[in-house]
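Hi support team,

I submitted a single chain yesterday and got back a structure, but I'm not sure I'm reading the token output correctly. Could someone confirm the output below corresponds to the sequence I sent? I've pasted both exactly as they appear in my results page.

Thanks,
R.
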Amino acid sequence: MISISGTSEWSAVYPGAMIGLLELAGVENKLLSPQLNQRKRDTEARLRKDCAGFSRQDFLALPVMAAYEQYYKRFNKTYHVQLQVESIVLKGKNLPDVSALVDANFVAEVDTFVLTAGHDVAKLDEPVWIDVSRPGDEITPMNSSTRLIRAGDMVMRDGHGVCCTILYGQDNRSPITAETRHVLYVAYAPPGVPAKAVEAQLWQIEQNIRLFAPQARVEQSRLLLA
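Hi R., thanks for writing in. Yes, this is the structure output for that exact sequence:
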């Protein structure tokens, strides 16, 4: 089990925030899973039914979305999961097909609205910390070049530096790949996101993974509170 803790700075800057942690070993990252694909179609259909006629303000009135909007507004950004849900409901788009371990998270995210990143544990350098970004911090995002990140963002660091932030996403060093057999999902919940929503996110990811990897072993499933 990988060691993950929160810093005192994180607790001081974001009291009431929480991080959901789900670590699974013995998984296999298949390219496609018919059972998971069916769950994706079912989730999309349910969203279109439950949110029929919604405007952007209707989405932002939902408690979880509202909490993320307040966080992103501090940085003049728009919550990207909100945009993903809008594209499914308002534009009729489907969830992307990446890989089973990645898609297991995506389908849960659009159902609970809880922002979550997935990492290959073998590519993380312990110990891992939940922290706040500082001036001079940088990240090399997936499919992009190294860039400075804004101070004050919730981030995850390991021995090599920042490996994920709420605003900028994951680095190019630790994401899930076809070779991933030991995976860590990290759900970032700013103040105002209910614990039950984060717990539901972790539970749904696990259930989605068991559709194609029933042998998966849970190394940890818990909430880290600021």
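A quick pointer for reading it: The radius of gyration is 17 Å. Let us know if anything else looks off.

Best,
Support desk
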